[in-house]
Hints:
The protein has helices spanning 2-20, 45-63, 66-69, 75-94, 100-117.
Amino acid sequence: MKKLTIGLAVIFATVFAGSAQSADLSTGGYCPVAGNAKLLSIDSNATLTGEVVRLMDEAVAVADSSQWIHSGRPAFVWASEAKVACGKAYGYLKSDYRDEDYLNKCECFHARMVEYMY
């Protein structure tokens, strides 16, 4: 029940905040801690895949941790977003496709997660 309540609160907060602030990652307004993803500058697909998997694994660990699930900080929310975005970026990379949008989101959401952890 607590997870459902938290989930609904996140949805309502996102809906109402979405009208006040753009979610355009390219302008840096939504994710100023990441800016343009450094992931995009990695030339080697193997190196890029390794970095995306590292970010995804860290996000999964936070999203599965009761410490962050029950914390008053939004690290859990950003971890959940990061694991999805990084997972999608990873899926595209397995097909040798670099999806810039998901790479940006992966790095952005991971950076937000870390920002709220410390």
